[in-house]
């Protein structure tokens, strides 16, 4: 029987394994963050919460280099994702959606500065409250560059659940109040529907689809033909034969008009014994960006049907005038050969996009990030100014993402790869941050936390209300699209689920996706601006 002194000191051993503890916390935090209650959860912030618990109970030493690496990877990935559409979005959506986002963030900045200045809340806690109220990780990362980490994390931790509930409740209540207006807007749109008819009229036998004026006059398209028990797609060069069963898409009234002239209505086209396949294709070809599905002529060129588009992890049915963006996932139906050709056209590897993360290119983006962050500019009044590693990473990502390729270095990786780098960076950053602030968070808890919770609700609701009034009544943006812009401006995806209960079309999703990349960058700049304003006012003293 071995003596107790001969046992391996496991406790001492594990305490010294910083990487082991870090990735254990990341694993537990991701599991906790993935828990959902009615579609809402903590997401990446779950790592921060678990790390803070570990920091309070075990007090492990944070590893600074992992924390800095996490910041750089996260903001670099944010820039790479936003780069392809960031600058173009101001021109494309500036009159409506971007103006509404600017109103949202402008009101948020004034509201936050006013609350912090009037209440005497410390600047670090106030900026943390703002980041938590907006449930925004980029805002949190930005705030941590200027204020004590313990104060920012305390404000973020207190505000996050109240901001989460405040945003959802505000959207839910507002949509119930505005239900009649939304229903009228939805009813007024030319929503597409589908129906199936058998061709009985001999006048259309053998006529090419592009020569049948009945379809063009009523804006109805044929998305599929069942002929001799084989389901196939249709293009303008397809001849219609008597006895074909066709699936028509368009407005309901137009479909009925066209269908009655073709023949008789039947049940939907069966899918058995079909040679057709379905494939998801990532848009990576720079030559097709900002061009609509109808302009590209995908149906005519490849004889396929585009049924869905996934953008920023949100799926919707596209209109024919929808413009494709880098990283969109196009779901198409066609034969395997047709889909192969479409995939080569939309996302072929020769179009300046790496199918994997190119290590050399990643090294170049990181080098540029550290180089830009290390530049120090003397300012006459403010002293030395530097973007730091966080600002350098963001600028580097935007530059590489915008140009796509600089020399031999690729700036656009597959979206899944960029998402993994971003999540890994945020997880590394949150883990080390939680270790350092776990104990101080508990020490900060006192009666004032009740007031901080109330401030958090105001920080979330006031900008949303002001942005809605400006967007809907001044900019004339429809209700559902206005809320889509608000959710995109706050980078708050769960809000879309509430909106789509009233409007299941792609409109709120497109509004959200149009402003999301811009909001990621602007919200970081807004936090920096608020910090400068508060320092100038002498607030939080």
UniProtKB/TrEMBL annotation:
InterPro entries per record: AAE_transporter, RCK_C, RCK_C_sf, YidE_YbjL
Membrane topology listed for this record: Multi-pass membrane protein
Compartments, record wording: Cell membrane
Any single Pfam family the record assigns to this protein: TrkA_C
Annotated PROSITE patterns: RCK_C
One GO MF term: monoatomic cation transmembrane transporter activity
Biological processes, Gene Ontology terms: potassium ion transport
Transmembrane segments: 12-32, 39-59, 65-90, 102-133, 153-174, 359-379, 385-404, 416-435, 450-475, 482-502, 514-537
Stated name of the protein: Putative transport protein
Species per Swiss-Prot/TrEMBL record: Limimonas halophila
């Amino acid at each position: 029987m071995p003596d107790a002194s001969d046992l391996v000191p496991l406790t001492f051993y594990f305490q010294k394994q910083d990487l082991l503890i870090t990735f254990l916390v990341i694993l537990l935090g991701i599991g906790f963050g993935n828990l959902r209650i009615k579609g809402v959860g903590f997401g990446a912030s779950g790592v921060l919460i678990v790390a803070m618990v570990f920091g309070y109970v075990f007090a492990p030493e944070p590893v600074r280099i992992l924390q800095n690496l996490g910041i750089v990877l996260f903001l670099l990935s944010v820039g790479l994702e936003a780069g392809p559409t960031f600058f173009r979005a101001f021109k494309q959506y500036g009159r409506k959606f971007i103006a509404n986002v600017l109103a949202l963030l402008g009101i948020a900045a004034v509201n936050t500065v006013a609350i912090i200045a009037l209440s005497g809340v410390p600047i670090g806690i106030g900026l943390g409250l703002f980041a938590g109220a907006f449930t925004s990780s980029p805002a949190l990362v930005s705030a941590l560059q200027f204020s004590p980490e313990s104060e920012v994390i305390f404000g973020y931790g207190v505000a996050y659940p109240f901001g989460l509930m405040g945003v959802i409740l505000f959207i839910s209540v507002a949509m119930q109040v505005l239900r009649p207006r939304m229903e009228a807007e939805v009813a007024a749109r030319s929503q597409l529907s589908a129906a199936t008819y058998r061709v009985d009229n001999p006048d259309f036998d053998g006529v090419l689809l592009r020569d049948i004026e009945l379809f063009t006059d009523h804006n109805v398209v044929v998305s599929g033909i069942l002929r001799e028990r084989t389901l196939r797609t249709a293009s303008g060069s397809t001849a219609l034969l008597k006895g074909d069963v066709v699936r028509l898409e368009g407005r309901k009234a137009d479909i009925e008009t066209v269908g009655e002239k073709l023949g008789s209505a039947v049940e939907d086209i069966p899918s058995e014994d079909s040679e057709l396949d379905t494939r998801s294709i990532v848009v990576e070809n720079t030559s097709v960006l900002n061009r609509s599905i109808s302009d590209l002529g995908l149906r005519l060129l490849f004889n396929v049907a585009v049924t869905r588009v996934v953008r920023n992890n949100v799926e919707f049915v596209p209109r024919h005038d929808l413009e494709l963006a880098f990283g969109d996932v196009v779901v198409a139906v066609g034969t395997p050969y047709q889909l192969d050709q479409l995939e080569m056209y939309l996302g072929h590897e020769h179009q300046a996009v790496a199918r994997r993360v190119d290590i050399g290119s990643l090294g170049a983006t990181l080098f540029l990030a550290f180089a830009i962050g290390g530049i120090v500019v003397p300012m006459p009044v403010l002293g030395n100014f530097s973007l730091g590693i966080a600002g350098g990473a963001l600028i580097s990502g935007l530059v590489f993402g915008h140009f796509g390729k600089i020399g031999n270095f690729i700036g656009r990786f597959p979206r899944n790869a960029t998402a993994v780098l971003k999540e890994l960076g945020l997880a590394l950053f949150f883990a080390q941050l939680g270790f350092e602030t776990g104990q101080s968070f508990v020490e900060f808890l006192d009666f004032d936390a009740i007031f901080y919770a109330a401030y958090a609700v105001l920080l979330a609701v006031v900008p949303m209300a002001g942005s809605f009034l400006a967007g809907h009544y001044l900019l004339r943006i429809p209700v559902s699209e206005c809320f889509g812009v608000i959710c995109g401006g706050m980078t708050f995806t769960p809000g879309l689920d509430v909106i789509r209960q009233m409007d299941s079309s792609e409109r709120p999703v497109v509004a959200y996706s149009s402003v999301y990349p811009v909001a990621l960058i602007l919200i970081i700049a807004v936090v920096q601006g608020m910090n400068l304003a508060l320092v100038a006012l002498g607030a939080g003293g």
